[in-house]
């Protein structure tokens, strides 16, 4: 099967909506993803932001996986980093190299925007994610911590 990867732009609202559904199912978070779905105008605005990267894997005109990353300009040196925030592949398309292909595509985007590294967090209980990121990383981190600090 020939999967293609595409970076989404402001006119790709239909594709980002499909990616939202892939994330909803993969993360098993119906309440989160369905409680207050964003309007198309909001999604178009998000996709127009040059520091927002949404990539999708497509097979037969259907989104079967994707990722969301953010460009983070740094001030320690004149460079940026990419924060890989979400990545998921539909269960029936897993173990076919799609996640790796998405990350390789993200590396290409990173070079275009002057990023020096992609960083990502994964909880140790997410064995698949830890294995994937460990395979692609030079880092030998074994303890991963993630904290959500609410603003409201």
Summarize the SSE layout with pairings.
Blueprint lengths: L3 E4 L5 H14 L3 H5 L5 H9 L3 E8 L2 E12 L6 E10 L8 H16 L1 E6 L6 H10 L16
Parallel strand pairs: 4-5
Antiparallel strand pairs: 1-2, 2-3, 3-4
Helix pairs in contact: 1-3
Can you put this structure into words, describing what you see?
- The chain is α+β, with helices and mostly antiparallel strands and 152 residues long.
- It has one domain (4-136): Aminopeptidase (3-Layer(aba) Sandwich), CATH 3.40.630.
- It is built from five helices and five strands.
- The protein has helices spanning 13-26, 30-34, 40-48, 98-113, 127-136; strands at 4-7, 52-59, 62-73, 80-89, 115-120.
- Strands 1-2-3-4-5 form a five-stranded mixed sheet, sandwiched between helices.
- A hairpin with a 2-residue loop joins strand 2 (52-59) and strand 3.
- Helix 1 (13-26) packs across helix 3.
- It is globular, with a radius of gyration of 16 Å.
- The mean pLDDT is 87.
What is the structure about, briefly put?
It is built from five helices and five strands. With 152 residues, the chain is an alpha+beta fold. The longest helix has 16 residues, at 98-113.
The CATH homologous superfamily corresponds to Gcn5-related N-acetyltransferase (GNAT)
Physical arrangement of strands within the biggest beta sheet: 1-2-3-4-5
**Mean pLDDT over the full residue set:** 87
Gyration radius, to the nearest Å?
Answer: 16 Å
- Number of helical regions: 5
Helical residue percent band: 25-40%
- Global outline: globular
Assign the CATH architecture: 3-Layer(aba) Sandwich
Quick one: how many beta strands? 5
Question: Which fold name corresponds to the CATH topology?
Answer: Aminopeptidase
| Order of helical and strand elements | EHHHEEEHEH
**How many domains is the backbone divided into?**
1
Share of β-strand residues = 25-35%
For the termini, the CA-CA separation is 45 Å
Poorly predicted tracts of residues: none
Oligomer: single chain
Structural class: alpha+beta
The CATH class is identified as: Alpha Beta
Give a quick account of the main beta sheet: strands, pairing sense, barrel closure. Answer: 5 strands, mixed
